[in-house]
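Title: Request for sanity check on RNA helicase prediction

Description:
We are preparing a figure and want to confirm that the structure record we downloaded matches what your pipeline produces today. Could someone re-run it with the sequence below and paste the raw C-alpha cells into this thread? We only need the C-alpha cell string, no images.
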Amino acid sequence: FQFFVAVEREEWKFDTLCDLYDTLTITQAVIFCNTKKKVDWLTDKMRQANFTVSAMHGDMPQKERDEIMAEFRSGSSRVLITTDVWGRGLDVQQVSLVICYDLPNNRELYIHRIGRSGRFGRKGVAINFVKAEDIRVLRDIEQFYSTQIDEMPMNVADLI
C-alpha cells in the first residue's frame, strides 16, 4: 500500500509524524529524509518530544552504523531515521512501514525506499509526506511506475 499525507507547511510534517508514532511502533518503521542535516534535526526533535528513535547516515563512522543496524535488526530499536544510504541493499524483515518525510529527489530512489517495507511476503505500507509543491513529483512517480498513491486512510494501522 502506498499513501500520501498532504501537509500545508514543512513544520507540520513533524506533528503528523508524532501523530503516527504509535502506528510506527506496531512493528518497525524507517523514516527517510533527503539530507543528513534533516536526519539529525528530526532525530533531536523526536527525542526532545520523548519518542524513541535511532538515526543513521553516511557521515557516521561505519562501526556506529553497524551498531545501529544491529539494534534495529534485533528489534530493540523500532524506528530508524535515515538518508538514502539505507535505501540500498539492506534487509530488515520486520519493517512494514516506510515514511518518506521528504519525497526523494528522483524516481529510482523512491523504489529503493518503499522496497524496504513488506519484504518476505509481509504486508508493507509506504506513507509520503507531501507539500503542495511535491504533488507534481508524486504524480510523476505514480505515472512512471504505473501505480496509484492515495490519500492515507484513517485506519492505516489496520493495514500494517
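Thanks, this matches our download. DSSP finds five helices and seven strands in the chain.
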